[in-house]
Amino acid sequence: MIVDWTPLRELLAAKQHFLITSHVRPDADAIGSEVGLAAVLQQAGKTTRIINASPMPPHLAFLDPDHEVLHLGTSATADQILQADVHVVVDTSSWLQLSDVGKVLRESSVPRVVIDHHVSADDLRAIELKDPQREATGALICDFAEAAGLPITAKAATALFAAIATDTGWFRFAATTGETLRVAGQLVDRGAQPHRVYRELYEQSSLARVRLAGRILSRVTLDCENRLAYTWVPWSDFEELGALSSDTEDLVNEGLKIAGTLAAFIAIEQQNRQVKVSFRSRTEVDVAEIAERFGGGGHKQAAGATLSGPLAAAVQQALSAMKSALESRA
């Protein structure tokens, strides 16, 4: 699917101030796409502001060396969102995932653009520039830069390389194509340093994160004749260990490292006692479809949703849905 970037190019020609935002609990594709897009727009002489509903995860701060990513309520205000000429949402098409920023966006009548690669979508009343076949939103930002004839700086290259590398599991997921690697190579040519990105992402863990991972992995349980692996995280783990919610990132994939597993999920209790569930699949089970039943979404093989607590009940709901999906395809 080829995205027609004409609507965004037209806005680029007509507007000056761009607000960029993404989903709650942002990952590297969200932060990398925001920082990368801002740098590209700045090359066109535009002013940009990045405001998210969640604070910057500490392990991703290296992607934002100029501290451009602001947090609504602490370092940014609703008025700053409303001052923009254009609102650009990256890496999500969900009102729920936009949280408090989404509430502000609903009040505005300025043009809204969505750049995303997820299948699941709400009607954000926006110009949609989407390609569900693309491996990462960061790759779509690279496409836009090329279509608009705008250069990618070294800072943008680093951010966009991290976006693509993480959303492809460091180029090992099935969504990785020859084009993925060609784009990644071009980003390296423009200044991205894969060894540094990898070190910052995966070799800077706190002792609390390591201990948290130990607890989470000790709870891994198998079901569906060992085809499904799942685990859970009570909020008390974060409090006792001094760990962060972002310290659970990617741990769901550990379940797929067990021989014979075809799917996995992790249920993470939040401070407000809601439960974030991340689903993974490496079979025909469509976890985006499962996540959508709970008001979430994502991709066929990687998706997520937020369920009401308590934790034990949410685990059972997720387990029942995953077992049903696996058994129907047995």
TrEMBL record:
What are the DHHA1 domain coordinates in residue numbering? 247-327
Q: What is the lineage of its organism?
A: Bacteria, Pseudomonadati, Planctomycetota, Planctomycetia, Planctomycetales
Query: Which InterPro entries does the annotation name?
Result: DDH_dom, DHH_sf, DHHA1_dom, Oligoribo/pAp-PDE_c-di-AMP_PDE
Name listed for the protein in its UniProt record? Bifunctional oligoribonuclease/PAP phosphatase NrnA
Q: SUPFAM superfamilies from the xrefs?
A: DHH phosphoesterases
Database matches in Pfam families: DHH, DHHA1
Please give the Gene Ontology molecular function terms for this protein: nucleic acid binding
Q: Tell me where in this chain the DDH domain is found.
A: 18-164
